[in-house]
Amino acid sequence: MALLDRAAQRLLERLHLRVRPKAASGEQGGHRSDKRAHGLEFAERREYVGGDDARKIDWQAFARNRSLSVRTFEEERDARVYVLVDVSASMARGAPPKLELARRVAAAFGYLGMNQVDRVQVIPFADAVERATPTLRRRDDYPGLEAFLTGLAPHGVTSFAAAARSFVQRFPARGLVVVVTDLMEGADWEPSLRLVAQRGAELCVVRVRCDEDHAPDLRGELELRDAETDDVLRVAVTPALVEAYRAEVAAHVDRTRDACRRVGGRLIEAPVELPFDELLRRVLAPALERP
Q1: What is the dihedral of CA 154, 158, 160, 166, to 10 degrees?
Q2: CA 28 to CA 78: how far, in whole Å?
Q3: 8 A C-beta contact, residue 206 and residue 181
Q4: Are the C-beta atoms of 122 and 110 separated by less than 8 Å?
Q5: Cα–Cα distance, 205 to 105 (Å, whole number)
Q6: Separation between Cα atoms, residue 152 and residue 129, nearest integer Å
Q7: C-alpha distances in angstroms, 232 versus 21, 126, 184, 222, 235?
């Protein structure tokens, strides 16, 4: 099955990703920079001062008011869109599996970026970043992206701290960073999110979740096996224990959401049970340019 059907592609073709100027790279492309240059869109007119490029003098304004001014422009820049996809073993859970939805979310961000001629790379991670796609720039590159995503399989243990360190070392150029994950690692994510954001990246965390992440249907004396570490825990599961687990997961998600806000990013919930067209609008809305 295609990750994005034609209806989803048509929707994406009408949208445009927003990237803050500081997160754009220095190459020509489809995003406005806060640098002023002789570029594509008129920005403002200001008084001429000695040393200004005489070619930028607005002679029509001089003819009207007999004062020298120069025209400045917003230069458009291309941007990099990095999509980090959690492929740890816990992503196999859910109906459909969380990794299946993560593939589709990654495909959507990739398609959006390629549609506006940005430089897109999709990067799987578990306890480190793994082999990434080559840089993709055109919509014609989408079939290769879909084949790459379809080939991803859940494995290994999540360590976002190690993955974040590896990411900033291997991919130093600034851009929009989308992290698609189930957040099922109990560690504090804030230092790693801050590390990514301090590199000038605009940050978006998409939390892919299933019902059993919040409300496991478990009762009685059980032997539980960790999906990632394979550790075994023998436990008597009571309603009180399930409620304590729910509270801890909710607190972890809230802490990570607050951490995203503190570093200038955002966390978006993506339940696997939600119809994909509705989920797509929910996930993409905060990342889109406003008209």
Answers
A1: -70
A2: 5
A3: yes
A4: yes
A5: 11
A6: 13
A7: 48, 21, 17, 10, 10
DSSP letter, residue 141 = G
Q: How buried is residue 184: exposed, middle or buried, by Cβ count under 10 Å (0-12/13-18/19+)?
A: buried
Which residue is associated with the tokens 């889109």?
Answer: 288
193, HSE (Cβ side, Cα atoms, 13 Å): 27
Over the chain (291 residues), the average pLDDT of each successive run of 10 is 88 79 51 44 60 76 82 59 95 94 96 88 93 91 95 93 93 91 93 91 93 76 65 74 86 96 94 91 77 47
Can you tell me the distance from the alpha carbon of 82 to that of 129, in angstroms, rounded to the nearest whole number?
A: 12
| CA contacts within 13 A on the Cβ side of 20 | 15
Name which CATH class applies to 6-25+78-287: alpha beta
Report DSSP state, residue 174: -
Identify the H or E element spanning 271. Answer: strand 266-271
| Domain boundaries defined on the chain | 6-25+78-287, 29-77
* Cα angle 260, 262, 268; round to 5: 25
Rounded to the nearest 10°, the torsion over CA 8, 11, 12, 13 is 120
